[in-house]
Amino acid sequence: MGFLTQTTPDVDLATWKTGTRAEKIVPMARHWAEVGFGTPVALHLFYVVKVLAYVVAAWLLSVGTSDVGGLTDVRGWYDEPVVFAKVVLFTMLFEVVGLGCGFGPLNNRFYPPIGSILYWLRPGTIRLPPWPGRIPLTRGDERRPVDVALYAALLVSVVAALVVTEPPRWLIAVILVVLGTAALRDKTIFLAARGEVYAALTVTFLFATVDAIVAAKIVLLIIWVGAATSKLNRHFPFVVSTMMSNNPILRPRFIKRRFFEHFPDDLRPGRPARTIAHLSTVIEMAVPLVLFFSGGGWPTAVAAVVMLVFHFGILSAIPMGVPLEWNVFMMFGVLALFVGHADVGPGDLGSPWWVIALAVVSAGTVVIGNLFPRKVSFLPGMRYYAGNWDTGMWCMKPSAAAKMEANLVAIAAMPASQLERVYGAGDAMAIPLYMGYAFRAFNTHGRALFTLAHRAMAGFDENDYVLTDGERICSTAIGWNFGDGHMHSEQLIAALQARCGFEPGEVRIVLLDAQPIHRQRQEYRLVDPAVGEFERGFVRVADMATAQPWDDTIPVHPYSDPEDRKSRQVSGPSRR
């Protein structure tokens, strides 16, 4: 990797261009396996500086505005409840403004590197209400002045809580009410605020001090155990091998190759990747239980060190999507809650029923999200980094992209336009575009997406289409995405069709659901915005997991026979 330049695959461009899409992915996948995306070192340093800026800002706002002693007296304030509360609120603010997950070039957001606040303070942008047919006053998909006011009120109320010496409970309640109301009008804001983490923790600030500490411990415990549970699948080793090959610290190519079965011909996860995947799942499942129940002493100390190393390992890899500040926060939570208040446990609860209710809601959402992944985003479902989330692939003609550029109220340009500004037009843009395809194909669902893209474009000339990740479309259209296909499903498709009026065949979309934890297959739908859904069925996880990244011919099972129709009735989309 160069300091200012990207390391790209060495291919004969003229010969490479004549290949099929699968053939073009082969050298990209092999390059990714031993280099990663080849991101310039300067870009990784940019994210390191951003994390440091987050830490400094959280430190100054949380400690400097509270009556807990001097800024440098870390031992005196690291476990103070008011400091923890302010760190939670600041991190929520950091995320919902758009500076956290999904920020910048490593999320393919170049100009500008931020969406979120630029969209949500602007009337006319697209909003996605979670239950428009059930909750009064939430119908529609256009942002109104009331939506802008709600988002602005959320920002103001959080800032107000940060600058007072100790946020009163009524102000905490205001933050929760405003966030909840805004979320009913637009679920994107709740997801961007990482509500499953920071909103749940904010609820605990309504409790008495001891109850709040225990409740916050339970929330973090549910996050860890829920995330570990979601990794009990065949997808996670693929995430590990892909992340390790893109790790900026792990530089030697011969080490990166070891994470694959047999470089360069078999790029399924090798034994090191599988071992790390299984070991990290065990750590995330078991060690937090030790933290929660040990009550202090050397077991707590050892468990805390393990979890700090665990999160630093993710942080240092600077993964795509860049969930960096979340990992820093979880590390702080280990120290502030489990080390600083190791002796505080469930037996100390004064009013347990509210804490139990919060735990049931948080854990219940995780259960529902794993059983019925189409119903729940992978964020509140806590399917973190598991390689198992809803995804989508949009096959678009240039005319469709032009309609989106012309008709959407948006800040960011279309993904292809952003790539063109960075890499140049024509052949110069082809390499990074296919490196993106290789990244998607390294995940199990990528094999299905590219296979299903052939079916989506059947009857049309595939050369007329540009394939674009659904989350890239989502980032342009609504201002935020963190790898979640839950946000660019039929609801967003309908909103775009109403604004752009795509012709039949102008856009063909693959929607692939996540795998339910109890079933070894993933359901798909093929959609044309102008005519609606024209095919659905499923692909088997085993077929994806045994294929190579460039394999776009995995078996597909369209629904046709009575047994499949019965399955469709059980797990089909909810009616609105």
What number is the mean pLDDT? 92
Shape: globular
Query: What structural category arises from helix and sheet content?
Result: alpha+beta
Return residue spans where pLDDT drops below 50 for at least 5 consecutive residues.
565-576
Number of helical segments with 4 or more residues: 25
Q: Give the strand line-up of the largest sheet.
A: 4-3-5-6-7-8
Sheet with most strands: 6 strands, antiparallel
β-strand number: 8
Q: What's the helical proportion of residues? A: 55-70%
Strand content: 5-15%
Distance between the termini: 49 Å
Fold and architecture overview:
The model is unreliable at 565-576 (pLDDT under 50). The chain is built from 25 helices and 8 strands. It is an alpha+beta fold and 576 residues long. It is globular. The strands form 2 sheets. It has a 6-stranded antiparallel beta sheet.
Ordered list of secondary-structure elements with their pairings:
Blueprint: H1 13-16, H2 21-35, H3 41-64, H4 74-77, H5 81-97, H6 117-120, H7 145-163, H8 169-185, H9 187-192, H10 198-204, H11 209-230, H12 236-245, H13 253-257, E1 260-262, E2 266-269, H14 271-294, H15 297-316, H16 324-339, H17 352-371, E3 391-396, H18 398-407, H19 415-423, H20 427-442, H21 444-456, E4 466-469, H22 470-478, H23 490-500, E5 507-512, E6 521-528, E7 532-540, H24 541-545, E8 557-558, H25 562-571
Helix pairs in contact: 2-20, 3-5, 5-7, 5-10, 5-16, 7-8, 11-14, 11-16, 11-17, 12-14, 14-15, 15-16, 19-20, 20-21
Would you summarize the structure shown here?
This protein has helices at 13-16, 21-35, 41-64, 74-77, 81-97, 117-120, 145-163, 169-185, 187-192, 198-204, 209-230, 236-245, 253-257, 271-294, 297-316, 324-339, 352-371, 398-407, 415-423, 427-442, 444-456, 470-478, 490-500, 541-545, 562-571, and strands at 260-262, 266-269, 391-396, 466-469, 507-512, 521-528, 532-540, 557-558. The chain has 576 residues and is α+β, with helices and mostly antiparallel strands.
